[in-house]
Amino acid sequence: MAEGAALRAVRDCLAAFPREARELGLVESVPYLDRPPSPLEFYREWVSPNKPCIIQNAIGHWPALKKWTLTYLREVVGSKVVSVAVTPNGYADAVFQDRFVMPEERRMPFMDFLDIVEKKVTSPNVFYVQKQCSNLTEEFPELVCDVQPDIPWMSEALGKKPDAVNFWLGESAAVTSLHKDHYENLYCVISGEKHFLLHPPSDRPFIPYELYQPATYRVSEGGSFEIVDEKTVDKVPWIPLDPLNPNLEQYPGYAQAKPLQCTVKAGEMLYLPSLWFHHVQQSHGCIAVNYWYDMEYDLKYSYYQLLDCLTNAVKVL
């Protein structure tokens, strides 16, 4: 009886936590700033309370905003061989057929990739430059001078430089499944639009996680994709739910979550705080650069870990 009462108390606490978090100051929509903030202002108003915002007039001086047409990228990067994520369905790093499936990482000339984006060449598959290991500096150093190696006011606010600066370019069919990162993320759109669906960390009790066998898309001799298990790798915790079309019969708790949605347009920057869940879509040929700053593993991180552990414990019981 005592155990049952304790379990009900934990469940009630988990159900109430997201509502109380919103009442205590979490945003109901993603606000806009009309200028880049000072380092102190940004840390005090956004990083410390873990709130997202869209910042305008922060990257208007970047040459990339005027220069980065597909024609320019073709001329500057040309035939250089780069890493491209290729999938049959547009979902890389996502749950499919009860596996956590990673994309085929195809090495191909950049101009061949651009031919696909510009539809000069047709393919049944979906292509996306999205390698997240500071690929801007590692694979596209020719383009670094058109942006910035870091965001100075962010670097000062956090007292560190970014761990990675990533370059993103792909087809509209390329979708990023719902997940979270342990980074303070500044996401800058150069051309096109990015569409974000966001959940605060306090929505964790309503967001399902399962453990999945990791696997990778591989192209068979016949040219079709097959899914190959990565048998020497531990199972991966991932979110099976599609927030655009959630299966509420299977995951009824998600009905209590309240996602935020926003569109980041060319010339705008999204501050995506650490541990926020995000699902991302894009316009065709959208170009973006993002800066990943390692988060502080402070009290916010401890609170999230506690919430995660309680959520998992209730599920087991």
TrEMBL record:
Residues 129-308 form the JmjC domain. Keywords: Cytoplasm, Disulfide bond, Hydrolase, Iron, Metal-binding, Nucleus, Oxidoreductase. One of its GO terms (cellular component) is nucleus. It is found in: Cytoplasm; Nucleus. Its EC number is 1.14.11.63. Its cofactor is Fe(2+). The keyword Cell cycle does not apply. PROSITE patterns: JMJC (PS51184). GO terms for molecular function: hydrolase activity; metal ion binding; peptidyl-lysine 3-dioxygenase activity. Homodimer; disulfide-linked. Interacts with DRG1 and DRG2. Bifunctional enzyme that acts both as an endopeptidase and 2-oxoglutarate-dependent monooxygenase. Endopeptidase that cleaves histones N-terminal tails at the carboxyl side of methylated arginine or lysine residues, to generate 'tailless nucleosomes', which may trigger transcription elongation. Preferentially recognizes and cleaves monomethylated and dimethylated arginine residues of histones H2, H3 and H4. After initial cleavage, continues to digest histones tails via its aminopeptidase activity. Additionally, may play a role in protein biosynthesis by modifying the translation machinery. This is Bifunctional peptidase and (3S)-lysyl hydroxylase JMJD7. It comes from Dromaius novaehollandiae (Emu). The gene is JMJD7.
